[in-house]
Amino acid sequence: MGILLVGFLLLPESECGALLGRAVACAASRRAVRADSQARCSPHGVPVRALPQARTVQRYNTKTLAKQELRRAVSPGSHMTAGARRSRPMSGQHTKQHCGLVRKPNVRETIQLPKGFPVRHNHATSAARGVRELTSPQPLPPQAFKKVVPLPK
């Protein structure tokens, strides 16, 4: 990127060449600053922030993976809903479509994230409009699980 900046700044001056060279150099430097700031945030371009207060979230999963996570921990980068609602759980097929999941889930896990826990707030990419998600760069301990509810068919 630095070579491009030097190359544009050394263009010969003509009546419009100086303006063009300066404009291109400014645009290239803005692009370099933006790319650098995104690279510093995370691999996804979203900064990691600590939760200001404890938050209850949900995670839709298969029954076998839920049992494994209850024994061990949730791996870093795993997806969770942005919040938890006290309601009747959606069916597995509806959850798959609404949240943009690859597999049809069997259970809904309710998780309590502690205050100060590092998370990324994202839009769920393949999900319905307005669906948000949380991911964390740290593993989630098994003590964070509050309950596991089977989804209706």
Low-confidence stretches: 13-17, 37-43
Number of helices: 4
Largest sheet: 4 strands, antiparallel
What value does the average pLDDT take?
76
How many E strands? Answer: 7
Euclidean distance between termini CA atoms: 55 Å
Work out the radius of gyration.
23 Å
**Helix/strand order:** HHEEHEHEEEE
What is the beta-strand fraction?
A: 15-25%
Shape: globular
Give a quick precis of the structure.
This protein has 153 residues and is α+β, with helices and mostly antiparallel strands.
If you had to describe this structure to a student in words, what would you say it looks like?
With 153 residues, this protein is of the alpha+beta class. The protein is built from 4 helices and 7 strands. The chain has helices at 2-9, 17-41, 63-71, 92-99, and strands at 49-50, 55-61, 80-81, 107-113, 118-123, 132-135, 145-150. The chain has a 4-stranded antiparallel sheet with strand order 1-5-6-3, with no helix packed on it. A 3-stranded antiparallel sheet has the order 2-4-7. Strand 5 and strand 6 form a beta hairpin. It is globular, with a radius of gyration of 23 Å. The termini are far apart. The model is unreliable at 13-17 and 37-43 (pLDDT under 50).
